[in-house]
Specification:
- The protein is of the alpha+beta class.
- It has a single domain, classed as 3-Layer(aba) Sandwich (Glutaredoxin), CATH 3.40.30.
- It is 24% helix and 24% strand.
C-alpha cells in the first residue's frame, strides 16, 4: 500500500541540515548557496517507486545542473530494519548506478522530520531564497516512463528558471513510507 506525502505550505523556508554524503563529505544547506534552485528528494535504495524513478531523476540532474540547479537525495530510512538502506548500501548503489546528485544519509531522521517528509520519493524545490516553490512527485507515472503525461518536477524547474509561474505547485508524492525507527 503506497504512502502519500502531506501538503506543505508554499513559501516555507528550507530546513537546515548537516549530513554525511556517500562521497565521505558533509553537506549543509549552505553548501548549495551558489545554486539558483535546490531540489531535495527523500529517497532510499530499496523502494520500488524510487528505483522506477532513478534514471529519470539522473536525466533531470544532467539537464538542469548546468543551469544552476543543485540536486540532493536524502535517505532517512531505518537501516537496522532495512539493511539495504545503510550508509554502505547507499555508497554501493550510488557507485553502481552512477548517481550524479549528492546522496546524503539522515541516520538520526531529524532532517526528514524537519521537512515533514512522509514517503520516498518525495521532492521539494527551493528558490534562490530557499523558499519552497514546488512539492510532490516527479511525474504522473512511476511505472511506465513512456506513458508520462505530466512532468511536474521538470515543469516546475523550467518555469522557475524562466521566471514564469509554476502551473502545478503541489502534487501528492506517492511511494514507500519512510521507515521510521521505533
Amino acid at each position: 500500500m503506497p504512502t502519500e506525502s502531506k501538503p506543505i505550505e508554499l513559501g516555507t523556508p528550507c530546513p537546515s541540515f548537516d549530513l554525511l554524503a556517500v562521497d565521505g563529505k558533509r553537506y549543509t544547506r549552505e553548501s548549495f548557496a551558489h545554486s539558483k534552485l535546490m531540489v531535495v528528494a527523500f529517497t532510499c535504495n530499496h523502494c520500488p517507486y524510487v528505483q522506477a524513478y532513478e534514471q529519470r531523476l539522473m536525466n533531470l540532474v544532467k539537464a538542469f545542473s548546468p543551469k544552476g540547479v543543485s540536486f540532493i537525495g536524502i535517505n532517512a530510512n531505518d537501516s537496522k530494519s532495512y539493511p539495504e538502506d545503510s550508509y554502505d548500501g547507499m555508497k554501493e548503489r550510488a557507485k553502481k548506478l552512477g548517481f550524479n546528485f549528492h546522496y546524503l544519509w539522515d541516520e538520526s531522521q531529524t532532517v526528514a522530520k524537519s521537512f515533514n517528509a512522509a514517503c520516498t520519493p518525495e521532492f521539494y524545490v527551493y528558490d534562490a531564497d530557499r523558499k519552497l516553490r514546488y512539492h510532490g512527485r516527479l511525474d504522473d507515472n512511476h511505472k511506465d516512463p513512456s506513458a508520462v503525461k505530466e512532468r511536474y518536477l521538470e515543469s516546475a524547474l523550467g518555469a522557475l528558471l524562466a521566471d514564469q509561474p509554476i502551473l502545478t505547485t503541489q502534487t501528492a508524492a506517492m511511494g514507500c513510507s519512510i521507515k521510521w525507527k521505533v
